[in-house]
Amino acid sequence: MTAMDLKLIKMVSDHYWIKSDNVVDKISYKGRIFYNKYERIDKPLTQQIITQHLKGETTVAHSLVNKFDKVENIVIDYNGRDPQRFYHRAQLLLREEGYINFTAYETKTPGHLHLYIHKGHTSLQEAYQLAKMLSMKLASKMPNQWRVFPTQDLPPEYNILDIPQEVYAKERGASWSKHM
Predict the structure, then answer these.
(1) CATH no. for residue 39?
(2) Which residue of 26, 27, 50, 114 has the lowest C-beta tally within 10 Å?
């Protein structure tokens, strides 16, 4: 994974999260209790920290929501058994919905994908609505084996994702889009 591949994500880099072996804090949210294993580090996310993560020395996550409540990416976290089928279906849906910039990354767990839909500066409320709509449209075509971020169902501290390991596939303003 190159630094350029990660720049496609436009990660929030003014802070990052490190996974701990122990529970860092207990969060009560909408009548549920969550045990957070990620500790927020209020220092810039540097290439050295990302390299440690890619080597497997630490587990580092990035926030999806910045300090101005804006979102750059809507992310589908696929945890099923058939990533090729999922990516193909998701790719067709995204094209149909008019999204032409998206990238799928492999995670540490084989077969799991993070599909980053590069939306640009989007308000948090609009991102919640878009994420829910995309999830419902995907669910009409295949079994629901994913979560969509950002989500209102989880506390803000849970709208984070581990930095991906490898690029699975990417699409950038493909030539077919001009014919739609």
Answers:
(1) 3.90.920.20
(2) 26
Asked, for residue 98, whether it belongs to a domain, the answer is yes
Q: What is this structure's pTM?
A: 0.89
Q: Which domain holds residue 45?
A: 3-175
- Whether residue 180 lies inside any domain: the answer is no
The answer to whether the CB of 10 falls within 8 A of the CB of 73 is yes
Q: From the centroid of its chain, how far is CA 141?
A: 21
State residue 1's pLDDT score: 64
Please count the other Cβ atoms lying within 10 Å of the Cβ belonging to residue 40.
Answer: 16
pLDDT digits (tens, 9 = 90+) for 124-151: 999 999 999 999 999 998 888 999 999 9
φ, ψ of residue 34 to 5 degrees: the values are: -115, 140
Q: Reduced to 3 DSSP states, what percent helix, strand and coil does the chain have, rounded to the nearest 5?
A: 30, 35, 35
